[in-house]
């Protein structure tokens, strides 16, 4: 069974999948790199829309660990039996929302995010459990 590591980096969704013989790197649903063969470690490379480089390293014997680097800076790491961090921080801080923002603006953003999560689920890039967790986290905001 494939293991999935899903990270949110700014507006980009980065997913690394790993099975017994294949590892793949996806950014916003598009495959960036893959590795096929038997190995205890591999490196996958790609680029974000912003031009920043992504490097994902996978390795381990008893459990698979995934480390994610953006422009050679370690952003996050996860082990297949632990959930990945909810949000990796991009280099630039997003603009602060004005204090007069209405709840309807937030509802539109939530709807957009839920749509993205639904697309990932429909493409079988995340499991139902991961979808439900991501949805619950989003609705708490």
What are the main properties of this structure?
2 domains, alpha+beta, 4-stranded antiparallel sheet, about 140 residues, single chain, Lipocalin, globular, 2 helices
Protein architecture, described:
By secondary structure, the protein is an alpha+beta fold. It has 2 domains: 89 residues, Lipocalin (Beta Barrel); 42 residues. Helices cover 23% and strands 38% of the residues. It is built from 2 helices and 8 strands; from the N terminus they run ββββββββαα. The strands form 2 sheets. A 4-stranded antiparallel β-sheet has the order 1-2-3-4, with no helix packed on it. It has a 4-stranded antiparallel β-sheet with strand order 5-6-7-8, with no helix packed on it. α1 packs antiparallel against α2. It is globular and about 40 Å long. About 4% of the residues have low confidence.
């Amino acid at each position: 069974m494939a293991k999935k590591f899903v990270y949110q980096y700014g507006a980009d969704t980065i997913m690394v999948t790993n099975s017994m013989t294949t590892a793949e790197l996806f950014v916003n649903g598009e495959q960036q790199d893959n590795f096929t063969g038997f190995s205890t470690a591999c490196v996958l490379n790609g680029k974000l829309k912003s031009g920043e480089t992504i490097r994902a390293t996978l390795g381990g014997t008893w459990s698979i660990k995934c480390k994610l680097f953006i422009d050679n800076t370690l952003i996050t790491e996860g082990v297949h039996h632990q959930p990945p961090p909810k949000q990796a921080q991009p280099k630039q801080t997003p603009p602060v929302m004005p204090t007069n923002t209405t709840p309807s603006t937030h509802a539109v953003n939530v709807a957009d995010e839920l749509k993205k999560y639904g697309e990932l689920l429909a493409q079988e890039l995340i499991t139902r459990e991961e979808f439900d967790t991501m949805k619950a986290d989003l609705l708490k905001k």
